Structures are given as C-alpha cells and as structure tokens.
Amino acid sequence: MATNAPLIMRIMALSINTAKRAGVIIRDVLKQGDLGIVDKGKNDPQTEADRSAQRCIIASLTKKFPSIKIIGEEGGSDLNVCDDWLVGEQDEAFLKQICPAAWQDAKPEDFVIWVDPLDGTAEYTQGYVEHVTVLIGIAIKNSAVGGIIHQPFYKQSSGELGRTIWGLKGLGTGGFTPVKPPAGEFIITTTRSHSNALHQKAVDVFNASKVLKVGGAGFKVLQLLEGKAHAYVFATPGCKKWDTCAPEAVLEANGGTLTNINGEHYEYHADVEHVNSRGVLASVGNNHKELVEKIPLEVRQAVGAM
Ligand code: AMP
Ligand code: MG
Ligand code: MG
C-alpha cells in the first residue's frame, strides 16, 4: 500500500521500522554481554551494537532507496546482512499522514540521510541505557526536515520495551505526547561526558534552576520535548551532523529550535563537515535569540563563532 506516497513519506515510514529493528539489535548485544568495545578517539567508544545497528539501518535503507545518499557515524558498512536484519516493511500508520506540500516533489538527489545507529554509546557501556537512542535524520536540500528518535530501553506502561518518535517539519510529531517545561524555572540539559571549562562557563551564565547531565543528543532533545528542560546547551565542538539532524527535525516540527551557539542552523548537504564545530543550542518556546545572546563572547570566539 501507498507505494505512490511522496518519497519523504516512504523514507520516514521505512526509517521508523528500521530504527525499531536496530533497537532490538542494541538490546540483544547488551543481553549477550560481549560489547566488543573499540576506542575511535578520546571519549569516543564504539561497540558491536553501534556496528551491527548501523549495518541493519544502512543495508535496509540502501536496498529500498539505492540512489539516496546515506551517511552513517560508523563509516562505510558491509551491506551484506542477514535477511533478519533487512527491513522492508514501511510503517503503515505513518503512511496515512498527509505529506506537507513543501516536500511532495523532493527528488532522490535532494536527500541526505544522516544515521547515528546508537547515540549515547558511552552511556550504553556504563549502564545508563535509558539515555540511548537510534537517530535517523532526513535532510532535504541542506536542511534537517524529518527525523526518527527511537529509544530501545524506554519502558512502556504495558511493560513493552522501546518507543519510536518521529517528526516532520510542516506535519508535526508522533509517538509521544509533547509537554511544556515548567514556568518560573529554567532547566538546562547538557553533556555528562564531554564538558570542558569553556563549556561550563556557557552553562553557568544562564544561572539555571537545575542542570541535568545526560548522554546523547537524541535524549537531550527528548527532555526538551517532554518538558523536563527548557534548553540544551553544548558550547564546544564534538557532536556531529548525525547527532543533530534527527533531533533538530523532530524538535523543530514541534515548534522548538536547534542551532549552533550563534543561533545559526547547521547545513546537512552531503559534503558538509561532519563535526558541529560551533556547538549546539536548542530550546523550546520562543526565546531562542535571547539564549544565544547570553553565551559569553569568549566562548563564541573559542568555537570560531565570532
Ligand atoms: P554528549 O552530549 O556528550 O552525550 O554528546 C552528544 C553526542 O555527541 C554523542 O554522540 C557524543 O558521542 C558526541 N560527542 C560530543 N562531544 C564529543 C567529543 N568531544 N568527542 C566525540 N564525540 C563527541
Ligand atoms: Mg551520537
Ligand atoms: Mg553513535
């Protein structure tokens, strides 16, 4: 059904099911116990779950959409995967949604799909599994437009494990109930494993009522969307386009904003540098510009934003 749906809708619908399948792989690797940890750099681990989840996602999306550019965190992947990892079914409920007019005619060459098969790897290896997400971000002509954030370890009230959230600009979000953060407070969510003195200066300047330190860009944006925090501050380079593409699209589909610390959106074309060198500032509500202006000059200069 819906094979005639616009390309963005078919990519989103397959990405929803692919992210869920990757989530099962991530749970299975943890259950089986041998994480196969490799250090990609300082504070940058990779596990068997990152590698296998990426192969599942990239092989499934490539098989269905061979002409679309896909960039995954874990580099070039062996696409020869077992049938059990190859997802071909699209999420039928998503396909019932109406595609926003702006994306209806987007062609394969307009797209780049940014894949973070496991966001929050450090936390995954340390037992903070609720911080882990699978991120599939869909860019059209340079901008983050659609995103899937899957939480493999989210406990549903039914007892079932896993939750899948989607967002498409112009359409909205699904898979969760958005909540506004509490009025009269200012809560920041930020990194728990990649801080430094300048980043801390940027956090301190907000004089927040609470600072939550959690792993992953996906989980921090979910905290904004579920009313747990007002702003996500990361005033240092280190996170990459695959960390921010899906979270930016989901957040902005729900009225929030995700930019660098200078208030500018990142670009997501295929040749863009992978690192988000000017940090991340994300917020809900409509005071994003005020938040940007609070970031100290010294911090902006340090990341080349001034
Ligand atoms: P965090 O907020 O520290 O959990 O980081 C969000 C995402 O950016 C995760 O995927 C991290 O692995 C990545 N990241 C942030 N800073 C660095 C860094 N200095 N080196 C490598 N990866 C980083
Ligand atoms: Mg990540
Ligand atoms: Mg990752």
From TrEMBL:
<feature type="binding site">
    <location>
        <position position="116"/>
    </location>
    <ligand>
        <name>Mg(2+)</name>
    </ligand>
</feature>
<protein>
    <recommendedName>
        <fullName>3'(2'),5'-bisphosphate nucleotidase 1</fullName>
        <ecNumber>3.1.3.57</ecNumber>
        <ecNumber>3.1.3.7</ecNumber>
    </recommendedName>
</protein>
<dbReference type="GO" id="GO:0046854">
    <property type="term" value="P:phosphatidylinositol phosphate biosynthetic process"/>
</dbReference>
<dbReference type="InterPro" id="IPR020583">
    <property type="entry name" value="Inositol_monoP_metal-BS"/>
</dbReference>
<dbReference type="Pfam" id="PF00459">
    <property type="entry name" value="Inositol_P"/>
</dbReference>
<dbReference type="GO" id="GO:0046872">
    <property type="term" value="F:metal ion binding"/>
</dbReference>
<dbReference type="GO" id="GO:0008441">
    <property type="term" value="F:3'(2'),5'-bisphosphate nucleotidase activity"/>
</dbReference>
<keyword id="KW-0479">Metal-binding</keyword>
<feature type="binding site">
    <location>
        <position position="119"/>
    </location>
    <ligand>
        <name>Mg(2+)</name>
    </ligand>
</feature>
<dbReference type="GO" id="GO:0004441">
    <property type="term" value="F:inositol-1,4-bisphosphate 1-phosphatase activity"/>
</dbReference>
<dbReference type="InterPro" id="IPR000760">
    <property type="entry name" value="Inositol_monophosphatase-like"/>
</dbReference>
<feature type="binding site">
    <location>
        <position position="73"/>
    </location>
    <ligand>
        <name>Mg(2+)</name>
    </ligand>
</feature>
<comment type="similarity">
    <text>Belongs to the inositol monophosphatase superfamily.</text>
</comment>
<dbReference type="InterPro" id="IPR050725">
    <property type="entry name" value="CysQ/Inositol_MonoPase"/>
</dbReference>
<dbReference type="InterPro" id="IPR020550">
    <property type="entry name" value="Inositol_monophosphatase_CS"/>
</dbReference>
<keyword id="KW-0452">Lithium</keyword>
<keyword id="KW-0378">Hydrolase</keyword>
<feature type="binding site">
    <location>
        <position position="243"/>
    </location>
    <ligand>
        <name>Mg(2+)</name>
    </ligand>
</feature>
<keyword id="KW-0460">Magnesium</keyword>
<feature type="binding site">
    <location>
        <position position="118"/>
    </location>
    <ligand>
        <name>Mg(2+)</name>
    </ligand>
</feature>
